[in-house]
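Quick note —
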Amino acid sequence: MSDPASARPASESAGWSLPWEGGCRCGALRLQVTAAPILSAVCHCRGCQRMTGSAFSLTLMLPAEGVAITRGETRRGGLGAALESGCAGPAGIAEAEASGAGLPPSAIDHRLCPVCGSWVFTRIEALGGMVNLRAPMLDEAAWVVPFVETVRAEALPWVVTPAPHRFAGFPGPEDFPALAAAFAAEGARPGGAG
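Predicted structure written out below.
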C-alpha cells in the first residue's frame, strides 16, 4: 500500500491552529497533536460499531510522529488483542476469519486507556506510519467533520453524514493522494476555516 503521508501537500499546516490537546474519558491519558491531519473519516464497519458502541467511529488520520502521549499510557485492545490472548469468543473468531480482502485483526493495533477503556487511537501498519486518532478524544472536537466515509456497505440504514467521499469498503491505495489533496483544500478546520 502506498504511504498516505507521501500525499500530504506542502500547505498541510495552513489553518490548523496546532497543537491540539486531548485525552481519554477519565483523564488518566493525555495526548498532544502537533501535525495536521491527512483526512477525517467515519468508518461504518461492524468492528468500529462494536468498539464505539455507536453507529460509526470518527477519525483523524495523522502522521504517527504528530501524536504524542503526554501523560499515561495505552494498552492494546479490540479483536486483535482478544485473539492474541485466546479470549475471543465464537463471534470474534468468525469475524476474524471473514475479514476477506480486509486487514486481519492482528494488523490493526487498537490502543485504549488502561484505566477507563476509552478507544484512543489505532495504528495500522499497512498505512505506513499513520495513526487514526478518535476525533472525540480532542478537547476541542466540534470542528471535526467527516470528509470520507468507509465501509458504507455496513452502515446502519438511518446514518447520514456530510462526507463528500463515500466508499462501500475501504478506499484503495490509489485513492489516497487525491483524497488527501482534496481534504487539504476543502476539509474542515478549527475555527471554521477550510
